[in-house]
Design brief:
The chain is built from six helices and seven strands. It has about 210 residues and is of the alpha/beta class.
Length: about 210
């Protein structure tokens, strides 16, 4: 299984590996088998080009910035070693969204799941200072095109039993009309638990301009 409900520890190689396996399984829903540690944590294929993914599991807001910076550094090293293709960083923010491992409740099951996406946006907003600090020191040669925020938790409506819920939120790091993001968006539309839209917090964001 994917044990995110009962342990809030930081560095945990077993849980880190588990998140890599979950990410690889999600990406290979398109029919192309994922590879691991070759050279990034997970690799797959998008439109004939390789997709390199580094996986991070931050458990605090400051750690979210640090893990993001670490992912950029690793991706930069892959580029310098001649590995081309799309780049993404997957971040499991389950502990940040639901630190007490409780059940997230909405008026019905669908609304409860929608609230999970809202919680991810809240975490991004709350971490903006740490993310901005990390952003000032990111390696520009990393060619990271996409951030994948993932949450796994229990949700339920006001009536009925709880359900296990997994969602993936896309946050592009390139222009929304760029060919790189269009290819990745088309690829991700075929995945389960995909957010059917992209939310950018700031209307002046360079990804719109």
């Amino acid at each position: 299984g994917d044990p995110v409900f009962t342990n809030k520890s930081g560095y945990d190689p077993g849980r880190d590996l588990c998140f890599e396996l979950v990410t690889g399984a999600m990406l290979q829903q398109n029919g192309t088998q994922s590879e691991f540690e070759n050279p990034s944590d997970v690799t797959n294929v998008v439109g004939g080009s390789r997709l390199l993914v580094e996986c991070k599991r931050p458990t605090t807001l400051p750690a979210l910035g640090r893990r993001l910076k670490e992912g950029y550094r690793q991706m930069s090293e892959h580029r310098r070693n001649g590995h081309a293709g799309f780049g993404a960083i997957a971040l499991d923010v389950s502990t940040l969204v639901n630190p007490t491992f409780g059940i997230l409740v909405g008026k019905d099951a669908t609304t409860a799941v929608e609230h999970v996406y809202g919680h991810i946006q809240l975490i991004i907003s709350e971490a903006k200072d740490y993310l901005a600090r990390a952003g000032r020191n990111l390696r520009q040669d990393a060619d990271v095109h996409l951030l994948l925020f993932r949450v796994r938790c229990m949700t339920r409506g006001e009536q009925g039993p709880p359900n296990e819920t997994q969602v993936w939120q896309l946050e592009p790091t390139v222009h929304l009309r760029s060919p790189e993001f269009q290819a990745l968006y088309s690829f991700m539309q075929k995945q389960p638990a995909f957010t059917p839209g992209v939310t950018v917090l700031d209307s002046n964001d360079r990804r719109f301009l």
